[in-house]
Backbone:
C-alpha cells in the first residue's frame, strides 16, 4: 500500500467511522439511560432514510430532509415509547427486546408497502457534490462533510450531556433513577425525551448516510448489527465508548476490505469477540452500580 | 387427552360422512380426481380434463430478492393472461410460496407445493443456492421444475436433469461472449470485480477465459463481501491503484447501486471505463443509477429497447400492469410461463403423460422478447442471444442501447471451457 493509498483509506476509515457513530449514538444513549436494548433502532434508521427520501422528492431539498425527517421519526419514537415500551420498564430485558424487535418487524413491513422493494438512492446535494483530490484520487466532498458533521454531532451530544441541565438530569437518571425521581426529576418524561432523541439520531444517521449507503429493504438489519457491534465494543450506554468503538470498527472495516477482502466481514466480528473475552463490559464502560 | 381423542374421532366421522355424501353425489371417478390422484386418466377420452392446472410459483416475496420475485411473477401473469389463463384446455391456478433466501427453507416450500398442493410443476426460483438445494428432490422424485432465474452453471452441467428446465440463463452465458468482445473493443488489461460467492466467481471465470484467449490480461481480481458490500469506498482506491484499462464487474440490486455510484463519486468513471454483465445496469437499478451509469457497457440476453414485436407488446403489457419499465427478470418469468404453456398444450392438459410433456418442453420454440427462444436439448438451458448494451441518456431517462449483437450460445454443458477465476 503506497502512502497515497494509505491516506485515502485512512480518510475512508474516518468517513465510515463517523457514519457509524451517527448510527450507533442513539442506540447507546437509549441503553445508557433506559437500560433498554432497542432492537428497532435499525428500523428507525431506515424509516428516517425513507422519510428523508420523500421529503427530498417533495421539496427538492436534501437539507430540509436532514432537518425534518429526524423530527417526524422522533414523533413515532414518542408514540412507541408512550404506548408500548412504558408498559415494559418493570419487566426484564427479554420482554423489551421482543417488543422492540417486533416494532422493527412491523416498521419494516410498513416501509415495504409504502416505499416498495426497489433500491432507492439519493443524489449528493449541492454544494457538496464536487470532489477534492486526496492522494491523487478525486475524493467526494460529501464524504468529507460527513466527517465534519459526525464530529459536530459528537461534540454537541457531549456538551448536551455534560454541560446542560437536561444532561445533568439524564446523568442522574443513569446513575440512580429512583433517587433522581425522589429529587423531583420527572423520570417518565426524561425517558420519553431520551427515546425520542435516540430515534431522531437514528433517523439523522439514515438521512446523512443515504447518499453513500443508499436505501433498500433489509438495510435496517444490516445497520442494527453494525450499531450493536459498536455499542458492544464501546460498552453499552457510554457515548465516548460509542465514539471510540466507531473509530475502531470503521477503520477495521476499511482496512479489512483493502487488505484482506476475503476476511473483511470476519475482522469486525473478531474484534468484537476479542473485546467480549477480555473486557465483557466493553472498552470504555465506567463501572457503576445499577439499581434496575 | 380425552378431549383431543373425542374431537379427532368427531372430525374423522364428519369427514367420512362428507366423503360418503360426496361420492353419492358426484360418483367415484370425480371423487378420485378431486383428491388429486395422479392417474385418473382412464376416464373416457371424450370428456376432456377441465379441472384447474395447479402451478407452484416459488419466488422471493421478501428480503433482498423481492424485486426479482415480483418481476418474474408479473412477467408470468402477462404470459398466462395472453392465453386466457388456460393451457391444454385447463384453467391455470397459481399457488405461490415465498422462496426467501435460505435453501433449506425453500426446499420445504417446494415439498409443500408438490406434496400438499399437488401442483403439476414448480416454476420460479431466483437464487442459485436454492436451485441447487431443490435439484435432487425434483430429479429423484421425477418432478418438473422450470427455472426463471437461478443461473448456477452446474444445473446445465454435472447437476443437469431431464426434469429441470431453465428459461433464464447460465452464469457462463453473456460473460463468455463479452470477454472476446471486450478484448477487441474496450482494452487489453482488465480488473475484475464481483461479490465473493459462487455466481460472482462463475461470471468472472467465464469472462476471464475468453478474454485471455483473445489476448487480454487480467491485472487483478477483486472479490467483495457478499451479500452486503457495505461502503464500497475502500475498493475504489484499489481500482485506482490497479491502473487497468477497464473494470469488468458483476453486481446486482443494492450492491450494484452502491458500487456503480461510488465508482462515479470517486471520479473513476472518467478515467477507467466500467463494463460488466448486464445485471450491473439492468432496468431494476438503472433509474437509481441515472447519470452514474452513463457509458457503461454490459452484455445480457435482453435489452429494454430491443426492436422486435414481442418485446414491444411485452413492454406495453408490462407497463399497463405495473406502471413500470420491464426488466430482464420479468422477461425470464414471461418466457418460463410461455414454455410451460407450450408443454401443457402439447399433452392437451394431461400432465400425467410425462414423457411427451418433457419432450415438448425441450423442443419448444417461440418468439420471445429476447429474440427466438430455443432450449439446448443437451442441457435444457436456453441458447441465448447476447446483446452488448451501452447506457445512454434519452431525455430525462437512461436506457441500455444495443451497440452490438454477439453470437448466440448455449451453455457448453461441461466445465472444460472454464477454469476457476479465484
Residues:
Amino acid at each position: 500500500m503506497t502512502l497515497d493509498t494509505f491516506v485515502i483509506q485512512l480518510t475512508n476509515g474516518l468517513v465510515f467511522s463517523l457514519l457509524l457513530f451517527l448510527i450507533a449514538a442513539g442506540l447507546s444513549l437509549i441503553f445508557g439511560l433506559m437500560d433498554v436494548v432497542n432492537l428497532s433502532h435499525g428500523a428507525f434508521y431506515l424509516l428516517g432514510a425513507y422519510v428523508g427520501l420523500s421529503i427530498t422528492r417533495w421539496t427538492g431539498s436534501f437539507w430540509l430532509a436532514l432537518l425534518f425527517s429526524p423530527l417526524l421519526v422522533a414523533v413515532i419514537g414518542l408514540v412507541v415509547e408512550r404506548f408500548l415500551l412504558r408498559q415494559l420498564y418493570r419487566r426484564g430485558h427479554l420482554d423489551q427486546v421482543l417488543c422492540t424487535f417486533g416494532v422493527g418487524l412491523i416498521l419494516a413491513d410498513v416501509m415495504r408497502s409504502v416505499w416498495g422493494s426497489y433500491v432507492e438512492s439519493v443524489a449528493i446535494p449541492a454544494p457538496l457534490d464536487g470532489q477534492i483530490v486526496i492522494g491523487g484520487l478525486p475524493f467526494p466532498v460529501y464524504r468529507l462533510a460527513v466527517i465534519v458533521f459526525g464530529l459536530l454531532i459528537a461534540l454537541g451530544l457531549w456538551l448536551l450531556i455534560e454541560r446542560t441541565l437536561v444532561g445533568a438530569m439524564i446523568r442522574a437518571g443513569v446513575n440512580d433513577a429512583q433517587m433522581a425521581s425522589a429529587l423531583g426529576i420527572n423520570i417518565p418524561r426524561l425517558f420519553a425525551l431520551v427515546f425520542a432523541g435516540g430515534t431522531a439520531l437514528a433517523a439523522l444517521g439514515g438521512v446523512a448516510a443515504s447518499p453513500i449507503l443508499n436505501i433498500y429493504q433489509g438495510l435496517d438489519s444490516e445497520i442494527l448489527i453494525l450499531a450493536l457491534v459498536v455499542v458492544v465494543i464501546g460498552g453499552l450506554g457510554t457515548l465516548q465508548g460509542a465514539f471510540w468503538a466507531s473509530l475502531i470498527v470503521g477503520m477495521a472495516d476499511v482496512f479489512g476490505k483493502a487488505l484482506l477482502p476475503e476476511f473483511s466481514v470476519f475482522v469486525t466480528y473478531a474484534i468484537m469477540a476479542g473485546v467480549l473475552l477480555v473486557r465483557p463490559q466493553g472498552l470504555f464502560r465506567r463501572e457503576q452500580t445499577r439499581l434496575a | 387427552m380425552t378431549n383431543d381423542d373425542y374431537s379427532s374421532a368427531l372430525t374423522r366421522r364428519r369427514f367420512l360422512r362428507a366423503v360418503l355424501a360426496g361420492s353419492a353425489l358426484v360418483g367415484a371417478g370425480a371423487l378420485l380426481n378431486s383428491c388429486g390422484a395422479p392417474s385418473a386418466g382412464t376416464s373416457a377420452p371424450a370428456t376432456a380434463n377441465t379441472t384447474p392446472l395447479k402451478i407452484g410459483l416459488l419466488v422471493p416475496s421478501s428480503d433482498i430478492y423481492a424485486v426479482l420475485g415480483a418481476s418474474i411473477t408479473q412477467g408470468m401473469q402477462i404470459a398466462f393472461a395472453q392465453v386466457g389463463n388456460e393451457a391444454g384446455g385447463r384453467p391455470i391456478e397459481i399457488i405461490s410460496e415465498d422462496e426467501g433466501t435460505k435453501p433449506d427453507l425453500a426446499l420445504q416450500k417446494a415439498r409443500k407445493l408438490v406434496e400438499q398442493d399437488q401442483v403439476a410443476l414448480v416454476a420460479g426460483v431466483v437464487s442459485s443456492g436454492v436451485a441447487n438445494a431443490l435439484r435432487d428432490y425434483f430429479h429423484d422424485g421425477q418432478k418438473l421444475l422450470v427455472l426463471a432465474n437461478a443461473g448456477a452453471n452446474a444445473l446445465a452441467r454435472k447437476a443437469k436433469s431431464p426434469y429441470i428446465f431453465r428459461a433464464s440463463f447460465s452464469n457462463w452465458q453473456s460473460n463468455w461472449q463479452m470477454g472476446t468482445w471486450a478484448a477487441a473493443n474496450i482494452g487489453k488489461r482488465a480488473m475484475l470485480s464481483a461479490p465473493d460467492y459462487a455466481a460472482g466467481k462463475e461470471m468472472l471465470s467465464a469472462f476471464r477465459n475468453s478474454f485471455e484467449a483473445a489476448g487480454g490480461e487480467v491485472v487483478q481480481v477483486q472479490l467483495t463481501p457478499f451479500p452486503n458490500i457495505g461502503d464500497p469506498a475502500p475498493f475504489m482506491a484499489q481500482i485506482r491503484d490497479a491502473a487497468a484499462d477497464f473494470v469488468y464487474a458483476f453486481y446486482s440490486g443494492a450492491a450494484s447501486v452502491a458500487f456503480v455510484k461510488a465508482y462515479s463519486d470517486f471520479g473513476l468513471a472518467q478515467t477507467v471505463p466500467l463494463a460488466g454483465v448486464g445485471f450491473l445496469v439492468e432496468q431494476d437499478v438503472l433509474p437509481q443509477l441515472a447519470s452514474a451509469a452513463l457509458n457503461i457497457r454490459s452484455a445480457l440476453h435482453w435489452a429494454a429497447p430491443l426492436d422486435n414485436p414481442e418485446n414491444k407488446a411485452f413492454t406495453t403489457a408490462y407497463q399497463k400492469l405495473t406502471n413500470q419499465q420491464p426488466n430482464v427478470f420479468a422477461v425470464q418469468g414471461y418466457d418460463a410461463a410461455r414454455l410451460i404453456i407450450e408443454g401443457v398444450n402439447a399433452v392437451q392438459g394431461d400432465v400425467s403423460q410425462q414423457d411427451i410433456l418433457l419432450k415438448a418442453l425441450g423442443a419448444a420454440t417461440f418468439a420471445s422478447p429476447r429474440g427466438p427462444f430455443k432450449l439446448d436439448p443437451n442441457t435444457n438451458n436456453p441458447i441465448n442471444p447476447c446483446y452488448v448494451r451501452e447506457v445512454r441518456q434519452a431525455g430525462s431517462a437512461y436506457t441500455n442501447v444495443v451497440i452490438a449483437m454477439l453470437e448466440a450460445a448455449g451453455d457448453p454443458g461441461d466445465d472444460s471451457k472454464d477454469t476457476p477465476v479465484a
In short: DSSP finds 13 helices and 16 strands in chain B. The CA atoms of residues 54 and 119 of chain B lie 5 Å apart.
